[in-house]
Protein 1
Amino acid sequence: MGKLYHSITELVGNTPIVEFERLEKALHLKGRIAGKLEYFNPAGSHKDRMALEIIEAAEKRGEISPDKTTLVEFTSGNTGVALASFAAAKGYRFKIGIQNGVSVERSKLIEAYQAEITDVPKELIDGVFEKGMEAFKDVIDYMCKNEENAYPTRQLDNPDNVNAHYKHTGPEIWNDTDGKVDVFVGGVGTGGSTHGISKFLKEQNKEIKVVITQPDPEDVVNPKLDGVEDGGFHGIHQVHDENGITPMAPGNFNDEYVDQYEFVTYAETLRAIHLLAEYEGIFVGASSGASLAVAIKQALLEENTDKLIAVLLPDNGERYLSEDLQKVRPELEEKAGF
Ligand SMILES: Cc1ncc(COP(=O)(O)O)c(C=O)c1O
């Protein structure tokens, strides 16, 4: 029987999860690692899931429609790419504000899908994510000014972001591992993916351990580290310190389902990316590398012998070629503990 699709949006989700058997052997890992390859989504990242859910849930509630609504978002990249693609596929106007420091590839993709890139004054943008939700709202209010039917997609606190992963990504991991997953590793940008997946997995089996990847603060505050402009973690940030949840934690983040926070250095991130390319022929982006590094460290632990560690890999390395993510840097990477 034929299988003719009618929209690119029908191809979102059902991404493959792959066990990294050659990597396990090469590093003599005690645990097993399976990576969920989210770059198989049609616009290239896990953000496709939430972009589609946010649009379609609002459509079902009767809040938006292509003939009258303008979608509005301020985003560092992958969300913008996903929203731009699906806005085009569904016939919506989409206004986007872009954060400083976005990879050239991602901003050019947004341009390709013909989203309307809006200039937001520098004083509103500077440090907006660090300042927290109020500053973010000011940016969105600015972008919605003079728009009659603007619908801010609000990735940071829109529950439909979490729902996308609770309804789909979590169940896919559970089903594709036959319920055998023991540990889940993911990072936090908006918190949507990790929160939705963890909630679903813990509801199936509360013994599943959830480990959150956090960029080492040293590597983030030393932006000139070995020529890396912004610490290079792209998409994830620290949400927990010794005093608990930090002001950078977005509205969608909830630590109810978190068992452990694990710091990862940029050296470990690069090493993980290059090992995956070398042994598995898979080239992922920096947030994926960071979570993979955490998964590798988990898989080296005696307590995780024969355990299955599932790790979310949000996008692929082609989105960061302009930043030389592919380049092996032996002096830096030998500092990694694996
Ligand atoms: C490449 C990348 N990885 C990870 C994340 C974090 O995912 P989430 O927003 O679901 O927490 C993002 C976005 O925020 C991202 O663009």
Protein 2
Amino acid sequence: MATVVVFGATGVQGGSVVNRLLKNPKYKVRAVTRNPDGEAGKKLASQGVEVVAGDANDKASVEAAFKGAEAAFFVAAYWPSVATLGLVGAGEEELVQYQNVAHAAAASPTLKHLVLSTLPPADKSSGGRLKVPHYDFKAYAVDWIQRTLPELWAKTTEVWPGFYDSNFAAFAMVKPLYLAAADAYLIPMPAKKSSILPVVGSVETNLGVAVEAILTTGAPAFSKLLVLVTDYVAAGDVPAYFSRATGKRAVFLEYSDADIITVFGIHGDEYAASMRWAAEFPVWEDPKVVADRTRLLTLEQVGLSKADLVGFDAGLALIKDKLVQ
Ligand SMILES: NC(=O)c1ccc[n+]([C@@H]2O[C@H](COP(=O)([O-])OP(=O)(O)OC[C@H]3O[C@@H](n4cnc5c(N)ncnc54)[C@H](OP(=O)(O)O)[C@@H]3O)[C@@H](O)[C@H]2O)c1
């Protein structure tokens, strides 16, 4: 059995990866958390996961987590640091975390495959006009690995998950607003109705499916990128998806950038920045976003088809009780 180190295992992305790999007898999962004795850590341990203490800011703990591992998955958290470090400061912290993980992976004598969850290069693709720190610092990390640790890059795969379906249930800025008097919902977004939202579908299922498929593919996936988007959805169509899942009436509401900043401060600014970039770069597989076409992996190249993924409609249906009051 190959040991796979999963960072963020107590969160959305890492949790999806753990759940999937646990069902595959080829893999032994080692979950990294800052708090192994917390509820989430204990739950993982009760499922047969090896739970180890680790903090991506602490190089020694990251190195220890890699001991004897053959593969690893990493995503930085970004958002929890925004309140204390600001938008760019949280990005700079992310960059250091990806670097710490990369150094530990490069130094590991056993590691065969590193999978990084990252996001598109907003800054680079727009020639520096549009910056989205929670995208850009992930892309800077990838550039840094390519330049600094080419041998590690030769066994690294990137995956870009689209906007989660579960944001509509759990992310305060995205969650639909209930109008009790009308028993209906407002879905506010810092976007035009025509703006395109690249959606990952059910993140709970799809990310794990994709990472398992990338690990199984091995060498043909090295130095490549899988764009994990099941649906490109016009913002103005989101209420129709919501209504199909919940049976409730819903309408789209356009926030101006100034409005969302008034309500959610710099967190709102970051959400708006991602939608400003999306207005010009709606499709992540586009040559304007991925200039090096040889880097793109198709689902088929990792042994998957769309039928293996849970799309936006089906994903929302699975979490419908969490979408409504
Ligand atoms: N929301 C979206 O639609 C979307 C789409 C694509 C990409 N993303 C990206 O997804 C990332 C967040 O992932 P998520 O949604 O899975 O996060 P999440 O559910 O909020 O969980 C965060 C995870 O990160 C871990 N973590 C936080 N700080 C850590 C540190 N210093 N060292 C080690 N682990 C740490 C936490 O583990 P412990 O607390 O147990 O230590 C937890 O497991 C962000 O970077 C965001 O940009 C989000």
